[in-house]
Write a structure and sequence with these properties.
Bound molecules: adenosine-5'-diphosphate, magnesium ion
Distance between the termini: 73 Å
Strand content: 5-15%
Helix content: 55-70%
Strand order of the largest sheet: 6-7-8-3-9-10
Order of helices and strands: HHHHHHHHHHEEEHEEHEHHHHEHEEEHH
Number of strands: 10
Structural class: alpha/beta
CATH architecture of the largest domain: Up-down Bundle
Radius of gyration: 37 Å
């Protein structure tokens, strides 16, 4: 029950819509009951057993039998004055009117349901997106990506079904069943007692048949997920697939999963088709049993019920079966939705360990230095990645980090914007621990250019202006000029409005890098971090990018990670990292003279 409330909770903001939905469902049920009940006098007239009532009784809307008496009085008047055919026509017209209201209110009920289900789904998606964006970089490892996407799509979908089902299960179906049962009791309480015994038995059998179907359909969903993942992988890795002539292998893998999925779906669909004849058969058996029971009572004249009332009773009984059936499938949807709610909540309740202090300080200027003081850091508790890092970067300096791949260079610069927090030691910005500052202020001071530029499927303009709110075309163009990007942008079809494709796929590596440099130029941060910004480029574009970088670094404090040592000869300070420790520091010439690790690295590249 507590779990169930988890789902109902989502509906609370939409309670007005929910109330309207319930109201119109009730009205719709009443109108449908009314039109079914009219079968009774209709048959009565045909069988010539309709009692003629000439006495009017006082009309009381709270008393069903007074309503019935008045209706019969009115009908009797028509039969007496205009004949039986006219009475049949009158009943027909009322049935049409009642059905008009029944279907109209049914539509209105769904009309008010629509904003609930779509609204809830929108709310959850927005909440998830905001949460995911707020989580620290460290939360995401590769295998979690698919997981998160599946939660934002499939699980949200499940919750949508669950919400609908719970509205139906809590409000619509029980109300329907109660109103129908009430009418049946009114028509014949003896027979209804009999129904009370019969109904649960039928419900149980139908429910059981459904349950095994659900298990297989769960398995089917899993297979579908795996198919989707393979399609995603195939499109993402198409280049490699083709280059390695692996089409056959990949396609074979896909076909085998697809085959499994088809087998499961065959099973599911066959079972699903079994469910309907099974329940129809059971329902018919139930109706026949009631027919027999009621028929015996009427023939033995044990009951005051007329034969037309028996038929009306059977019709109404047949209407109970559908909501009784959906009641059990709703319960299944709700259970599935609960599991999805849990998965979604896993993300929503993930703790963000990188937090801003209360009353954190504002910081809009970089005035003095960035300092690493006895910094130790590890991604996983027992494998130290950085140990005992001490480094002071003064304003205006260019500091280079060099070292083998895996020595911890990228990790070190990721600590400055607090992508990860350190365990021991301090990182100081202008003498104050970076944890004291507002996160957004701290990050505002930093500019980033990576080895693999992160671009978005959008126009060139928006990729450069990314994250900056008040900017204009002139500034963007100026930034592009500084970044050596203006010329190639002008040559594209729609200039700054050209779309660059997924991840900038329509551009060359050098062009992509220059766009990300233009973005950094526009942001104009006092501190710049360049993490192997040129190492993925060929010599030709490296020259253009190098030039762009030098423009960018002018009058700034820069931390440069460079693969090619020739690019950092002029750095004010070079730190050599080895297995997470700074092992040498100094200027280019000093380090060469030392004949240590830097010397070795340098020689490797020169020869
Ligand atoms: P560099 O940039 O000098 O090549 P990194 O700073 O990227 O080196 O990596 C340093 C070490 O940290 C490597 O051993 C790497 O395997 C490990 N590492 C990097 N990123 C992660 C991560 N997100 N989770 C766990 N280990 C990581
Ligand atoms: Mg790196």
């Amino acid at each position: 029950m507590k779990d169930f409330l988890k789902i109902v909770r989502y509906i609370i903001p939409y309670k007005v819509y929910a109330a309207l939905n319930v109201l119109f469902n009730v009205l719709s049920t009443i109108f449908s009951l009314f039109s079914f009940a009219l079968v009774i006098p209709f048959l009565g007239i045909l069988f010539k057993t309709q009692p003629l009532i000439t006495e009017k009784v006082a009309l009381d809307f709270g008393d069903v039998s007074s309503l019935q008496q008045n209706f019969n009085y009115w009908l009797s008047q028509i039969i007496i004055e205009k004949g039986e055919i006219q009475a049949l026509v009158a009943i027909g017209i009322i049935v049409i009117i009642a059905t008009f209201f029944k279907t109209g209110t049914m539509y209105l009920a769904n009309h008010f349901m629509v904003p609930i289900r779509n609204g809830v789904v929108r709310d959850i998606r927005n909440k998830l997106f905001d949460k995911v964006i707020s989580l620290p970089v460290g939360y995401f490892s590769e295998e979690k990506k698919g997981n998160i996407i599946s939660r934002m799509t499939n699980d949200v979908q499940e919750i949508e079904w669950g919400i609908m089902s719970s509205l139906e299960m809590v409000f619509r179906d029980p109300i329907k069943i109660l109103l129908y049962l009430g009418t049946m009791i009114f028509l014949s309480w003896q027979m209804t007692i009999f129904v009370f015994i019969l109904l649960p038995v039928v419900g149980l059998i139908i429910g059981q048949a459904g349950r095994s179907l659900r298990k297989t359909s769960m398995a089917g969903q899993k297979q579908m997920g795996s198919l989707m993942a393979q399609i995603d992988e195939m499109i993402g890795g198409l280049r490699i697939v083709k280059a390695f002539n692996a089409e056959k292998h990949i396609s074979g893998r896909f076909k085998s999963t697809n085959e499994d999925y088809t087998g499961l779906m065959n099973k599911i669909n066959r079972r699903r088709f079994l469910a309907s004849p099974l329940s129809e058969l059971l329902a018919t058996i139930a109706i026949v049993v009631i027919m027999w029971y009621g028929g015996t009572m009427i023939l033995d004249q044990e009951s005051a019920m007329s034969s037309q009332a028996l038929i009306g009773y059977l019709i109404i009984f047949s209407q109970i079966i559908a909501p009784a059936k959906t009641l059990s499938s709703s319960w299944y949807n709700i259970k599935k939705a609960m599991a999805s709610v849990d998965r979604v909540n896993d993300i929503l309740s993930a703790r963000n360990l990188i937090t801003e202090k209360q009353g954190a300080e504002s910081k809009h200027e970089f005035t003095d230095s960035i300092e690493f003081k006895n910094v130790n850091f590890a991604y996983n508790a027992d494998i130290p990645v950085l140990s005992d890092i001490n480094l002071k970067i003064k304003k205006g300096q260019t500091v280079a980090l060099v070292g083998q791949s895996g020595s911890g260079k990228s990790t070190m610069v990721d600590l400055i914007p607090r992508f990860y927090d350190i365990e021991s030691g301090e990182i100081l910005l202008d003498g104050i621990n970076i944890k004291e500052y507002k996160l957004s202020d701290l990050r505002e001071l930093l500019g980033y250019v990576n080895q693999s530029p992160i671009l978005f499927n959008d126009s060139i303009y928006h990729n450069i202006a990314f994250g900056k709110e008040n900017t204009n075309e002139k500034e963007v163009m100026e930034a592009a000029r500084v970044a050596n990007a203006h010329d190639f942008i002008s040559e594209t079809e729609s200039g700054y409005d050209s779309n660059i494709g997924d991840g900038g796929g329509k551009l060359s590596g050098g062009q992509r890098q220059r766009l990300s440099i233009a973005r950094a130029v526009l942001k104009n941060p006092p501190v710049l971090i360049l993490d192997e910004a040129t190492s993925a480029l060929d010599t030709e574009s490296e020259k253009l990018v190098q030039e762009a970088l030098e423009n960018l670094m002018k009058n700034r404090t820069s931390i440069v990670i460079a693969h090619r040592l020739s690019t950092i000869k002029k750095a004010d300070l070079i730190c050599v990292l080895h297995e997470g420790r700074i092992v040498e520091t100094g200027k280019h010439d000093e380090l060469l003279a030392k004949k240590g690790i830097y010397y070795k690295l340098h020689n490797l590249q020169v020869n």
